[in-house]
Design a protein that fits this description.
The complex is a heterodimer of chains A (56) and B (474). Chain A is mainly alpha-helical and 56 residues long. Chain A contains 2 helices and no strands. Chain B is mostly helical and 474 residues long. Helix content of chain B is 70%, strand content 0%. Chain B contains 20 helices and no strands. The longest helix of chain B is centred in the middle third of the chain and has 37 residues. Classes of the chains: A mainly alpha (56), B mainly alpha (474). Chains A and B meet through helix 1 and helix 2 of A and helix 4, helix 10 and helix 12 of B.
Chain lengths: 56, 474
């Protein structure tokens, strides 16, 4: 396959992927719940900060 | 025919096309396993060794574990969710905030981080060879360390140019061996010395002010967490769900890595040396010590291969290197490491400053990406615009650069150095209250939010400015 033909194929593939992923991204938007944000904020920010302050 | 299924090696080497959900490999178990194997790496030994210079076991444990978790979370939250949702590679994920060309500026920090770590752990490989020879009764001169670095560079070239398969074989042997080594160190520490001796061991080379020592140890912990920045996107874009993108990174790269760093800290305190290659024989005796040292030395090579491999892929973003043969790109990535052949000791001694400097490099980028992804874009990216190099593209900004984001990086660096200069050791009084990495994260984030709010592109989140790509940047 020529370089030009390969590039064209790559771009077509990229366009297909972009369309698919944008649709999938919208569809799974609700799969990360508010509870996840709360758990991560407490576990990865608040508790470590408390530990650092107590150990100082 | 898709690019990935074409079997064309050059396309798979680029690795920049967004991954579809069906192509991703990591479920919950594999995501945690990969992150864990990545987390228990030789740089944990270096970080623990540097912390042992400043603080004791209890304070050091808290600084390394809590600092690692905070650092990993802050820089990985927007990147992992964004890369997972859209299957993007990491540098591409920076384009909405930094611009098409501005993202290449981020690449410089990425390469500095990857190659800096590689150089340090190659010196550790050289030190390991020296200590093995000394344990066997030889007395090689200091030149052996530089020669070991040269050997390590050659081995890295050999493995990296033979592809990911050979690396996976090495990793399947070395990673379990390294985990066993860390477990062995922990067992020997507690069975031979006990917690009381560990907790009472004084720091190796502290500053006169204990508050400064603690503040620098916190900084080392946070910067150590932030130094994972380079691997976040690669891991997240290969996961199938958003939870698998973020939780394994916080748990393994943050928590597990912090624990591994702490075991290194305890070893450093007990042996009284910051050099990880000097711990094994005092802890395990000649036979087990030399075996453990050999595993650690080999693990340094696989860690370097991963870094150089990632650096080679990152270099593919640069014009002129996209079409180069893979071996040539690897050679270009390895050239800066030659400095460690000639000045191994001098550069190794700058390692703690380099580790702290990671905070300067990644904190501003992390702060800008955090605000951009969550508050400016509301978690919706125009994926087509990420791959659009035409000046009409949504993420082109000014000549391909977003001046607000770049100004944020400069301001972040200034904020860091005002609070703490890792090279001179100079500190501001506020450094005792606010870690420099956190200031370098927050200040650019606020500047970016204000700047984009008033002077940004004005594009609505996820607004599709083009229906088809005009000038694809792939």
């Amino acid at each position: 396959m020529t370089t030009e033909g390969r590039d064209q194929e790559l771009v077509q593939d990229l366009e297909h992927r972009i369309d698919t992923l944008e649709n999938e991204a919208e569809a799974e938007f609700g799969s990360f719940f508010r509870a996840d944000y709360v758990i991560l904020t407490i576990g990865a920010v608040i508790l470590p900060i408390i530990a650092l302050v107590l150990a100082a | 025919m898709s690019a990935d299924s074409s079997g064309d090696e050059s396309l798979s080497v680029y690795g920049r096309v967004p991954l579809l959900l069906k192509e991703r490999e990591y479920g919950t178990l594999t995501a945690n396993g990969t992150c864990f194997a990545y987390a228990i790496a030789t740089w944990c030994f270096l970080t623990g060794g540097y912390a042992a210079q400043l603080v004791g076991a209890v304070q050091g444990f808290v600084c390394l574990v809590a600092g690692n978790i905070i650092g990993v979370f802050l820089i990985s939250f927007p990147l992992s969710l964004g890369c997972q949702r859209y299957g993007m590679e990491q540098i591409d994920a920076c384009k909405p905030s930094f611009g098409q060309n501005g993202a290449r500026f981020v690449l410089i920090f990425y390469l500095l981080n990857m190659l800096g770590w590689s150089g340090l752990i190659l010196v550790m490989f050289g030190n390991g060879i020296q200590n093995i020879l000394e344990a066997m009764g030889y007395q090689p001169g200091q030149w052996i360390v530089g020669a070991g670095v040269a050997l390590g560079i050659w081995l890295t070239y050999f493995i990296t140019t033979r592809g990911i398969h050979l690396l996976n074989i090495f990793n399947s042997i070395i990673t379990p061996a390294l985990i066993l080594t860390v477990g062995f160190m922990l067992y020997m520490l507690f069975s031979t010395h006990g917690w009381e001796a560990i907790s009472l061991a004084p720091p190796i080379d502290p500053y006169p002010d204990p508050a400064i020592n603690y503040a620098i140890a916190v900084e080392l912990g946070i910067a150590s967490g932030m130094s994972w920045w380079g691997g976040i996107g690669f891991l997240a874009r290969n996961t199938k769900t958003r939870r698998n993108a973020i939780y394994p990174e916080v748990l393994q790269l943050g928590l597990a890595s912090g624990v591994a760093c702490s075991i290194a800290l305890f070893s450093g305190l007990i042996v009284g040396s910051e050099d990880p290659t000097e711990w094994m024989i005092p802890l395990g005796g000649i036979v087990f010590g030399v075996m453990a040292l050999a595993f650690v030395a080999l693990a340094n090579i696989t860690s370097t291969v991963v870094s150089v491999y990632a650096s080679g892929l990152a270099l593919r973003h640069l014009p002129g290197l996209q079409q180069r043969a893979w071996w040539q790109v690897v050679v270009i990535a390895l050239i800066p490491l030659m400095a460690f052949v000639f000045w191994p000791r001098e550069l190794y001694d700058l390692g703690d400053a380099f580790l702290a400097y990671n905070g300067t490099m990644h904190a501003p980028i992390g702060g800008i990406l955090f605000v951009d992804y969550f508050f400016i874009r509301k978690q919706r990216i125009n994926l087509r615009a990420v791959y659009e190099a035409a000046p009409s593209g949504e993420y082109y900004y000014w000549k391909g650069f977003n001046p607000i984001a770049l100004a944020g990086i400069v301001l972040g660096q200034i904020s860091y150095f005002v609070l703490y200069n890792p090279f001179s050791g100079a500190t501001h009084w506020m450094f005792n209250i606010v870690p420099a990495s956190i200031a370098a994260f927050v200040v650019p984030a606020v500047l970016y939010w204000i700047g984009m709010h008033f002077y940004g592109s004005g594009s609505a989140p996820g607004q599709a400015t083009t229906k088809r790509l005009i000038s694809p940047n792939i």
